[in-house]
Amino acid sequence: MQKVQYLIGLFCVLFCWSCGSSHNSQYTPNQKFAAADLREDTKILEKILESNHPSLYWYTPKEKMDGYFAATINGIQDSLNEVQYRNRIAALVSQIHCGHTVVLNSKAFAKYYSKKRLPQFPLAIKVWEDSLVVTASIYPRSTTIKRGTIITSINGRSNRTMLDSFYQYISIDGNIETYKSQRVSNNFGAWYKNIFGLDTSYLIGYIDSLGVERKEKLASFRLPVIDKSKMDSLQKIFSAYKIPTKKEIKKQMRNAQLSLKFDDTTSTAYMHLSSFSINGLHKFMRQSFRQMEEKKIKHLVIDLRDNGGGHLNNSIRLTQYLVKHPFKVADTVAAINRNYAYGKYIKESLWFWFPLNFNTTKMSDGRYHYHRFETTQHQPFSKHHFDGKIYLLQGPATFSAATVFTSSLKGQVNVQLIGEETGGGYYGNTAIHLPMIVLPKSKIQVSLPLFRVVLDKDRPKGRGVMPDIFVLPNSFAIRQGVDLKMEKVSEEIKVKR
Predict the structure, then answer these.
(1) CA 51 to each of CA 46, 118, 394: distance values in angstroms, whole numbers, following the listed order
(2) Does residue 324 sit in the same domain as residue 458?
(3) Is 405 a domain residue?
(4) DSSP label at residue 327
(5) Backbone dihedral angles phi then psi of residue 401, each to the nearest 5 degrees
(6) Would the pLDDT of 1 be above 50?
(7) What is the number of other CB atoms lying within 10 angstroms of the CB of residue 494?
(8) Which of 67, 86, 114 is where one domain is finished?
(9) Is the pLDDT score of 258 beyond 80?
(10) pLDDT in tens, 23-68
(11) Diameter of the chain by CA atoms?
């Protein structure tokens, strides 16, 4: 299996190289936009958000948001390139405190970098609080900096200095700071490059195995150029292996997203769901719970630590297999407008116009309510319903529909939430219908939530779903490859057997 996965990855890399050699786009990320054009883009963004964003002032009063927009607009006095402008808009948007309102580079920017062999940061790093710990290195055999190494500085910048620089550009639900840590952990090198620029080498401050602080210089990594004359010999090497078919590759990718395994000795089922938008998820759930019933499984572990959300209907369906009482999705699901300001700058605006106009009703508060989510009482499934002990693994990457799922089961007598605070809000979010704004001059993209979702008006506002049992990361566990959260589940199962 590992050999097949390695070959798949290698072929993908080779494909990117071959595409890069023929790329002749005129786009360059260093090109600058006139200050007047960028100020106009920012004003258009402000008008669109004021007209359609349902939670623009949920955490930040209007007077403050107006001030942030004015400061951003007035602060653009010189021409800027795309990265510089994107950072300013990301810092502005982060003041909304809405994790579903995110800023992306233009499509041309993404395409450009997908074709270039630019220097890469040599380490993968896990971030939490002030801690930076190496999870992988491109040079594992030629350096003392390996998995589990504690980082103290990079190129003279302390951990806190780097993280504070990164965090100001990250949008979060309410005040859930751990979500920022997760976003940086997902691609530390990209955040470093976007904020501090590319470096040819990095002076890494770290703690060695004896607890002594040391420094070591690591070169950046660049994918090598493959001489076309050598491609034939590479193809001969590959011909000795069975190349996976598209169907096999698709199956492997799907298995990485969702899986079900059984441990008959402890009567435990382990389910992994990385998204609620996976094709065939209904069938997977139906088959899984039927198998659990046939095997008379007593314990169910659902790993949602990397689940960033997806289709809400799938989240509801999984809840119905587990919940003990009827439930509704939310107290409030409402938009502030049925029409768009500057609709020509909103991608697929007509597609999203239909649910706004045909699925909502204007209520006395002046908002347009999505009553299906506010009033429908979803019943627990009677067929293949699981009534054993349930353990939900969650963390900062548990977001959106995944948070709706864990929050629906929190407090149920046979459910334990294990891990860390979720990245998605416990009180509410803006997870339903998210068209993309494309600013006309810079082509920067900003996601636009259309509905405010209050899951439960009586819940505390501003934080994520808290676990029943906290399990935090540490450098020793990372170095040893130990899954602390799964170990805690095993302990709980042993106690309850």
Answers:
(1) 9, 40, 35
(2) yes
(3) yes
(4) B
(5) -60, -25
(6) no
(7) 9
(8) 114
(9) yes
(10) 445 888 889 999 999 999 999 999 999 999 999 999 999 999 999 9
(11) 72
Structural domain boundaries enclosing 125: 118-219
**In the chain, what are the helix, strand and coil shares in percent, each to the nearest 5?**
40, 20, 40
Looking at residue 270, its pLDDT comes to 98
For residues 339 and 444, membership in a common domain is answered with yes
| Nearest 10 degrees: Cα torsion 197, 201, 123, 250 | 70
Query: C-alpha angle 325/329/334, rounded to 5°?
Result: 155
Instruction: Extract the tokens encoding 284.
Output: 């997977």
Lowest mean pLDDT among 161-175, 217-231, 329-343: 217-231
CATH of the domain at 210: 2.30.42.10
In a shared domain, residues 171 and 286: no
User: Are 135 and 274 in a shared domain?
Assistant: no
Q: Is the pLDDT of residue 308 over 90?
A: yes
Under 8 Å between Cβ of 442 and 391: no
Q: 258 and 274 in contact (C-beta within 8 Å)?
A: yes
Same domain, 47 and 188: no
Q: What is the CA radius of gyration of the chain?
A: 24
How many domains does the chain contain in total? 3
Task: Return the H-helix or E-strand segment holding 263.
Answer: strand 258-263
Is residue 7 one of the residues assigned to a domain? no
Q: Cβ-count burial of 237 within 10 angstroms (0-12 exposed, 13-18 middle, 19+ buried)?
A: exposed
Shared domain check, 404 and 261:
yes
CA distances from 223 to 8, 14, 145, 314 (A): 17, 10, 21, 40
Same domain, 251 and 374: yes
- Same domain for 258 and 138? no
CB 444 within 8 A of CB 104: yes
Predicted confidence at residue 478, as pLDDT, reads 94
Q: pLDDT: is 424 or 112 the higher one? A: 424
pLDDT of residue 159: 97
pLDDT for 341 equals 83
With b meaning 16 or more CB within 10 Å and e meaning fewer, what string describes 215-228? Answer: eeebebeeeeeeee
Token pair, residue 474, equals 């540490």
11 domain-assigned:
no
Instruction: Select from 96, 114, 132 the last residue of a domain.
Output: 114
| HEC sequence for 124-187 | EEEEECCEEEEEEECCCCCCCCCCCCEEEEECCEEHHHHHHHHHCCCCCCCCCCHHHHHHHHHC
CATH number at residue 330: 3.90.226.10
pLDDT at res. 496? 75
Tell me the pLDDT tens digit for each residue of 136-150: 999 888 789 999 999
- Within a domain: 5: no
Quickly tell me which residue has 């630590």 as its tokens. 305
106-120, 209-223, 418-432: least confident range: 106-120
